[in-house]
């Protein structure tokens, strides 16, 4: 399963899924290694969740860790890079945490 297939199976607003796809595509092509790696880790976590290889709790913990790392990276980066991290990485993580993780088929079974 790839991210497009995963997003197709999620019951969420089309605009949210479209925004996430655009952010993910932008992140994978970004010149920042941190932003690229964040996108890769996020993609892997969501796919593992959809396959029941990770629990919702595991993914939520990973997303919180990634958000903390993004804040640290943004704080030490130059202003331009900081803005890019906030615009891309923070927003991807927010969409994943607040919408996608909860909407992945089967993931609600893991929620207690």
Q: Could you give the distance between the termini?
A: 26 Å
| Sequence of secondary-structure elements | HHHHH
Question: Got a strand count?
Answer: 0
Largest sheet: none
Mean pLDDT over all positions: 88
In percent terms, what proportion of residues is strand? under 5%
* Percentage of residues assigned to helices: over 70%
Low-confidence stretches: none
- Tertiary shape: globular
The structure class reads mainly alpha
Number of helices: 5
Whole-angstrom Rg: 14 Å
Brief summary:
The chain is mainly α and 112 residues long.
Question: Can you describe what's shown?
Answer:
Helices cover 77% and strands 0% of the residues. It is mainly alpha-helical.
Protein traits:
112 residues, mainly alpha, globular
List the helices and strands and how they pair.
Layout: H1 3-8, H2 14-29, H3 33-50, H4 56-76, H5 79-103
